[in-house]
Design goal:
The chain is mainly beta and 226 residues long. 8% of the residues lie in helices and 51% in strands. It has a 5-stranded antiparallel β-sheet with strand order 3-9-10-1-4. Strands 2-8-7-6-5 form a 5-stranded antiparallel β-sheet, with no helix packed on it. A two-stranded antiparallel ribbon has the order 11-12. The longest helix is centred in the first third of the chain and has 10 residues, at 58-67. It is flat.
Length: 226
């Protein structure tokens, strides 16, 4: 499967009207109706699903979108598993932090912030595939108490029926980051009344969407389906 993030920050930086920005789902001709979700932050996630079929030029369109600065392919793994057997993959980082022990000493512990996929395929009698999916996206939170890093978690659990070789796309996992940077000339930028002449404030409102593309393929291995 492939996963990637697509953002509108570059378009905003160019002065484009946010109302006219085409989302990645439009660029890829994907229609994503809403589905049920599980999330620690319901306001930032709204899961949707679409089937692209077999003839969609996915790699070319994703590469073009990445070259234009509108997206980034963050992972492109391949998994093989047996019928009705779970497969798991994760990609991310482990964040070190100090934790005090009962003796008063400190030890280094690690907390994961990863994008993970757990999938269990089931082949139907007519040669299609039922995918039981659990997707988890962890990001480091800006809010932190003490030395332990806080993790924002977004989870999806769903089950879909797909034709052998078809590509489905799972989307609707949004993240919005607002930042403000102030650049100033030393001393002059702090002057009252005229100080603003020597200061510049840049505001960035970046919104990204995580899209996950899955293509199940049945491999005949003797008498077993994989």
């Amino acid at each position: 499967h492939k996963s990637g993030t697509f953002n509108a920050a570059n378009e905003l930086a160019k002065g484009t009207d946010p109302a006219n920005i085409k989302p990645a789902t439009d660029r890829l001709n994907v229609d994503l109706p809403a589905m049920n979700i599980l999330s620690s932050r319901p306001a930032s996630i709204g899961v949707a699903l679409a089937n692209l079929g077999k003839d969609h030029l996915l790699d070319l369109e994703l590469s073009a979108l990445e070259k234009e600065g509108g997206g980034e392919i963050i992972s492109s793994p391949r998994l093989i598993t047996s019928n009705k057997q779970p497969a798991y993959i994760e990609e991310g980082t482990e964040i070190p932090y100090e934790e005090a022990t009962s003796s008063g000493a400190t030890s280094i512990e690690f907390k994961k912030a990863v994008l993970s996929l757990n999938v269990t395929p089931q082949i139907t009698p007519d040669g299609r595939v039922i995918l039981s999916l659990r997707i988890n996206q962890d990001t480091v939170s800006s809010e932190q108490l003490g030395s332990v890093p806080a993790i924002d978690t977004r989870k999806i659990e769903t089950q879909v029926l797909v034709n052998n070789g078809d590509t489905i796309v799972l989307g609707g996992i949004f993240q919005q980051i607002k930042t403000k940077q102030v650049f100033r000339v030393p001393l002059l930028g702090d002057l009252p009344v005229i100080g603003y002449l020597f200061r510049q404030t840049n505001s960035v409102n970046a919104k990204s969407e995580l899209l996950i593309f899955l293509t199940p393929k049945i491999i005949q291995d003797g008498y077993e389906n994989v």
